[in-house]
């Protein structure tokens, strides 16, 4: 995995909060550590001691089977839809 650096050799995207390794930007603009693989949270949030989640998405139906989709909060800290009959995942 490669990352870009400035003239002093420091990673342009910064350093990892967990391991202090270099961070690289993905094609979609997210940032991931080149050493440990942890995703860096770009959003500034106020810590209240409780987990901060984005708003739950609206109810939706599966485009394949028209069954209701289940809203699932993923490990990547975002919402996704899961269709149990089709075993398919969709972005929220």
Can you walk through the features of this model?
The chain has 92 residues and is mainly beta. It has two domains: 1-41, no CATH class; 54-92, no CATH class. It is built from no helices and six strands. The protein has strands at residues 23-25, 31-33, 39-40, 70-73, 79-83, 88-91. It has a three-stranded antiparallel sheet with strand order 1-2-3, with no helix packed on it. Strands 4-5-6 form a three-stranded antiparallel sheet, with no helix packed on it. Strand 2 (31-33) and strand 3 form a beta hairpin. It starts with 22 loop residues before the first strand and ends with a strand.
What is the fold's blueprint, element by element?
Elements: E1 23-25, E2 31-33, E3 39-40, E4 70-73, E5 79-83, E6 88-91
- Strand order in the largest sheet: 1-2-3
Number of strands: 6
Low-confidence runs: none
Largest sheet: 3 strands, antiparallel
Integer average pLDDT:
78
Strand coverage percent: 15-25%
Helix share, percent: under 10%
Measure the end-to-end span: 28 Å
Radius of gyration: 18 Å
**How many individual domains?**
2
Name the helix and strand elements from N-terminus to C-terminus, one letter apiece: EEEEEE
Helix/strand-derived category reads mainly beta
């Amino acid at each position: 995995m490669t990352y870009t650096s400035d003239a002093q050799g420091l990673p342009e995207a910064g350093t990892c909060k967990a391991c202090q390794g270099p961070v690289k930007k993905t094609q979609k603009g997210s940032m991931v550590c080149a050493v440990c693989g942890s995703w860096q949270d770009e959003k500034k949030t106020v810590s209240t001691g409780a987990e901060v989640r984005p708003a739950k998405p609206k109810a939706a139906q599966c485009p394949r089977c028209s069954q209701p989709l289940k809203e699932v909060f993923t490990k990547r800290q975002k919402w996704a839809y899961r269709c149990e009959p089709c075993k398919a995942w969709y972005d929220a």
